[in-house]
Fold this sequence. Notes:
Helix content is 44%, strand content 18%. By secondary structure, it is α+β, with helices and mostly antiparallel strands. The strands form two sheets. The chain has a four-stranded antiparallel sheet with strand order 4-5-6-7.
Amino acid sequence: MKVLKLSTQLHKWIALVVGLQVLFWVGGGLVMTAIPIETVRSEHRVAEPKPEPLALGGLPALGEIARRAGVAPVAAELRATPRGPAWTLQPAGGEPVIVSALTGRPFGPLSPAEASAFARRAYRGTATVSGVALLPEAPEETGRAGPLWRVDFADRERTSFYLSPATGEVVTRRSGVWRLFDFFWRLHVMDWDDGEDFNHPLIIVTTALTLGVVVSGIVLLWIRLARDVKTLRASRRPARPE
């Protein structure tokens, strides 16, 4: 009986310690499964792209572009952007360099009006632009570095488009739904800093303790059921005649 009592006490105290995190796991799991991931990513707010063919015949050769940019690229990518065709030149060391495919020079500064217009062109819906700002450093929620333009929309999700200051392209999208999802994700993985580490020692220990609570609970339940069955059988046993 002493062993059973001690096991019961340990089970209760460990359950009390990990119970709050179990609540976060279940609550976070409910939120993350109830909200479609497409809504979290604001995919329903992305306008259908209208690609236009690049006029390759009128563009300088890549070698000339690299010479003008002063870059010896080991890789290069040509693509259409809201500000015109652009080359992304990757040098052997350092960050990629984005230049105009027409001039070989970096694009000029992007104005608030241009940022608003480019974001509005990429947005699906009737909401108006509620704010435009050039951020000197990308917010943590974007997962990027360097400056970005942020354009906010007055829709029910409080959608924000983040644009490249060089090309005007939408590089990522965030919303109130995404931020709610991210909050519960951090609780779920027990990484309250940036939500990137989901196999750190704290969550491993907590999961092991939770598993111990579940297993010990099953054992204790089995012992109690066995004892109750034994008591019930004894109560139903006919009394010996005098």
